[in-house]
Structures are given as structure tokens and as C-alpha cells.
Design goal:
GO terms for molecular function: mRNA binding. The chain has 97 residues and is mainly β. It has one helix and five strands; from the N terminus they run βββββα. A five-stranded antiparallel sheet has the order 4-3-2-1-5, with no helix packed on it.
């Protein structure tokens, strides 16, 4: 691994990734490169809706291009206590350049 923007401390931790197209992907950061391309393990996409709870689509091992993402830490204890079946939210809109 190389010098990504502060990602070294997040390796082997659960992170949340928001993509430019509005997807929210949660998984364990396994690696990254100088372009911030990332590898997630045990990942799933959270699909938000205003009508029903959050759907979690299993992705497994997943690679995401670094030019399309924002990476954030995830408080695993707080996340584990969320009842996603009762959570309602508008889906994120894609980034328009």
C-alpha cells in the first residue's frame, strides 16, 4: 500500500463509502492505492427509501475506483444499534459536474 489520504489508519476497519452516483457501500477496508482505489471485504450496499426500511444488498469482496468516492469512518457500535428496517430517507442524488 502507498500514501493514500489518511486511509492507512482505516485498514481492517469498517468504513462507509459514498459514490458519485449516490450509492452508500459499507465494508471492511482491505487495501487501497495511490489513486485511492479501494478494496472492501464483507461489503453491502445500503439502499434508502422514503417508503420502506433500508435494504442491504450483499456485495462481498468489492473494488471501487478512487475518483468516484468519499470515504468515512463508521462507528460500529452505533451502527449495530440502528434498526435499519425502521429508517426512512431519500436516496442520495448523483453528483453533477
Amino acid at each position: 500500500m502507498s500514501d493514500g489520504p489518511g486511509l492507512e489508519s482505516l485498514v481492517d476497519q469498517t468504513i462507509s463509502v459514498i459514490t458519485n452516483d449516490g450509492r452508500n457501500i459499507v465494508g471492511i477496508l482491505k487495501g487501497f492505492d495511490q489513486a485511492t482505489n479501494i478494496i472492501l471485504d464483507e461489503s453491502h450496499e445500503r439502499v434508502y427509501s422514503t417508503k420502506e426500511g433500508v435494504q442491504q444488498l450483499v456485495l462481498g469482496l468489492y473494488i471501487i475506483r478512487g475518483d468516484n468516492i468519499v470515504v468515512g469512518e463508521l462507528d460500529e457500535e452505533l451502527d449495530a444499534n440502528l434498526d435499519l428496517s425502521k429508517l426512512r430517507a431519500h436516496p442520495l442524488k448523483p453528483v453533477i459536474h
